[in-house]
Specification:
This protein is mostly helical. The protein has two domains: 1-45, no CATH class; 46-119. It has helices at residues 33-43, 52-69, 74-119. The longest helix has 46 residues, at 74-119.
Length: 120
Amino acid sequence: MARCAGIKRDGGRCTVVVGPSQTHCYQHDPDRSEERRRNASRGGKSKSSGGELPDLKRQLKELAAGVLDGSVDRGAAAVVNQLLNTVVRVVEQQRKIRETEELAARLEALEEVLKGRKAR
């Protein structure tokens, strides 16, 4: 089985098995560098939590400031903080679900490519 000719960041040889007509895996193929750059750019863009996290941070800062200056009751602040923590967990769960769905779609696409190669 042929292995990728690429070199990893740590200086070691890439161990990914490649097809007979290939010399590099996806991560090391110089012809796919632009595709990798586009995919990395897309990966850093949040879709669902757009303004939610900055808004949550703002609310927590205001809550803390209110408790410190005495304008917000500590008991009420504790309850609001618990509710905001629940929102944070929901946002994180949404991110995990979205990420899992994206990975499943990518895996399905790779499986289709492999099926096509096996059929040849």
